[in-house]
Every structure is written in structure tokens, then in C-alpha cells.
Design goal:
The structure is a single chain. The protein has 15 helices and 15 strands. The strands form four sheets. Strands 4-10-9-8-7-5-6 form a seven-stranded mixed β-sheet, sandwiched between helices. By secondary structure, the chain is an alpha/beta fold. It has two domains: 141 residues, Aspartate Aminotransferase, domain 1, CATH 3.90.1150.10; 240 residues, Type I PLP-dependent aspartate aminotransferase-like (Major domain) (Aspartate Aminotransferase, domain 2), CATH 3.40.640. The structure holds pyridoxal-5'-phosphate. Pyridoxal-5'-phosphate binds next to helix 6 and helix 7.
Amino acid sequence: MFEFKTITLMYENNLDFAIKTDKEDPLNKYRNEFLIPTNNKGEELVYLCGNSLGLQPKKTSEYIQQELNDWAKLGVEGHTDAKHPWLPYHEFLTNSMSKIVGAKPSEVVIMNSLTTNLHLMMVSFYQPTRNKYKIVVESDAFPSDKYAMESQLKFHGYCEKEGLIQWKPREGEALCRIEDLEQIMQEQGDEIALIMIGCTNYYSGQLYPLKKITQIGHKYNCLVGFDLAHGVGNIQPNLHESGADFAVWCTYKYLNSGPGSLGGCFVHERHANNTKLNRFAGWWGHNKETRFNMRHEFDVLPGAEGWQLSNPAILSMAAIRASLDLFNTAGFSNLVTKSKSLTGFLEYLIEDLKNPKINIITPKNPQERGCQLSIQVKDANRQLHTLLTQSGVISDWREPDVIRVAPAPLYNSYQDVYKFIQRLKKILN
Ligand SMILES: *Cc1c(COP(=O)(O)O)cnc(C)c1O
């Protein structure tokens, strides 16, 4: 078990410490597998924005080039004769992906993009009845997820204002309390059909307890799903064990697969052959043996693969493979350990600024957060973010006064974190 306390005690606030820790870090070599953006003088930027778009692995172009070459050489025959045949291409991603989300391979598939997958999952797992139709969501959910849920309510003929229940932080607090979710369920559980929560909140960085939420939902006969966009690649969600009914995520944030790349989807094995679920179908979800006979009745594949619609974007999948191969060799549990240590260092340095204007809204307990810290700066405005950017730090600004920084364990270093704090300190003074 990871011992956070001992690591905290070891931190020191100086550059030598950061350099030494990078040297001792067995995962530090992976930084060199990435293309780090630079300023116009060719100096590396301090990139702490993997929560928005992960960096490009150096090998990505090679992986994509392979598919371009096979396409040039083979045309349509590439579906079967490419080095990595396109017909089963998604299967090459499944094993590594399933380890990162803690699922069985049959429970995981890469397909479509995130919001699309959320809709497809709600087609199956949000099947409201007259009296049980409400959806619970955390109050600061990512807007796209909220739009998806509201439009699903409307699609089924319900009023989205009444049907969408917000799990909110209490007055004067920034984080959601599990007791308050329990309270909502006690009061309205009979009317709630679905609990759909982000796993790590994109704004506060709070990691919700997936298993606990699932148990609460199932107790009231509700289905439970999660959006892992901000968790996948930096925390271990243990999806199978959590018992969640479904989950969705994207691969372009911490999984570094490039802008707009494909998303992922988890369906718990208890639903693998569940024919009672509604489902929007397409030929890629059809029995692989008879898919090309064309005139058959839909014969759905068991497991998550059965939710596929279209033949997927191979060039994007090649980029995902390039990144997942790095996760595989680094070992995901090692990355999670490093992540806790690196984010702990960031927290230590922020606290050591001893600036009364700064407040970290993300939970202090490492088990209740991923790698991102959301830093609230009293009286600050966008100017602060602009100055940070000019100083060579890529971070993320959320109105009215929050900087989000996310050291990604695969390519960020202790020196990145140290440099960020030095520059922030200078700007705040
Ligand atoms: C990044 C993100 C999205 C973006 O959705 P796309 O469909 O990939 O554009 C949606 N939801 C959450 C929680 C996100 O973090």
C-alpha cells in the first residue's frame, strides 16, 4: 500500500531536490518518449495541461505511418493483410485499456467519441418508467455530459429541469459529500432511474468513491454510470470491482491519443448478454463470423463490443496504441504511485508559498483526488493565467478564479512542478 505520509515528509522546497528526485524516478525516462512543446526560443514549456490534451508520444507518427503505408500498398486488402489488420484493430487496444480501468477485456471497447458513447450507454441504461425517471448528476458536471443527460430526459418526454437532480456541495463548500447523495436517494430514490457521475470532477479535481456510489444506487434499484474522462490514465477506477453498470471516457486527455481521438466504453459483464436492454445497433456490433454476409438479422456480440456501431477510425486507433504501449511498459500501478507523489509535491510547494490568497479546492486526501489540483486565487482574474502562459507554463483557467494544473505521471517531472511554482510565486508578488 502506498504510504503518502512518508513521502510528504521527504519533500524539500528547492531545485536540487527536484533534480535529485527526477534522477531517482524509475519512470522519468518516459518523458523522453514524448514531444514536449517549446517556446519560440526552443525552450521546453512547463506543460501541466494533460487534463485537457495529453502530449504526443514520439512513436505516434511511426504507428500512424504504418497504417498509411499499408493503406497505400494494400488498399482495401489492409482490412485483413495489414501488419495490424484493420478488421480486428480495436481488439489490439483492449488488453492494455482494460488494465488501466480495472476491467475484464470483454467489458471494454474503444469506439466513437466520449459524448456519443454516453448517449449510447444511456439508450441502454437509462430506460425510464412513468414513476422512475430521474437522473442524478454532480452539480459541476462537465457541460457536455449535462447536455447529454438533459437531452435524454427530453427525448423520453420528461422536463429536464425536474428530471435532473443535482448532487451539490453544501453552502460555503466546494466538494460534494457522500452523505448528501445518500440523502437524495432516501428522499427520491423511488423516482430515480440513473446515477451518472464524473469519476474525477473536471473542475474541483474531487475523485468520487465509485464503489460506494454504485452500492448506494443499486440499493435503490437505480443503474449507475461514470464518466472517467478526468480519471482514466491517472487513477485506478477498478471498474469491474466497483460494480458500476457502465462507464465512458476519452483517450485524448491523460491517454495522449491526439485531439478528438476515439473514446472508451465499459459495460459490466452482468450485462454482457442482456437482451432486455434497448440498444442502438450497427454492423460492428454484429457477430464477426457473419458480419459480411450482410443480410442476416442482427446477431449481437456479447460484451462491450456489442455496442459498436461503425468500423472505427484506424489512424486514431494507431495513435491510441502508441500511447497504451507506453502505459503497458511503464506499468499502470507504478504510474499511479508516481502520480500521488508528484501531485503531493505540487501540493507541498503550494502550501509552502504561505500565500493567504491561495486555496486548493481539490481534496487533501490522496485517495479522493487524481493528479489535478484546482487552485483558487482570491481576487485573481484571467490576467494571472495570461502571465503564467507568458512565463512558459501551460495550465488551464476556469472562471471566476481557478487555475487547474495536472502533472501527468507519464511525462511530467518534479522539475516541471518546481518551475511552475517558482513562476507562479514571481507573478503573485
Ligand atoms: C473532456 C470531456 C468531455 C468532452 O467530450 P467529447 O465528446 O470528447 O468532446 C466530456 N465530458 C467530460 C467529463 C470531459 O472531461
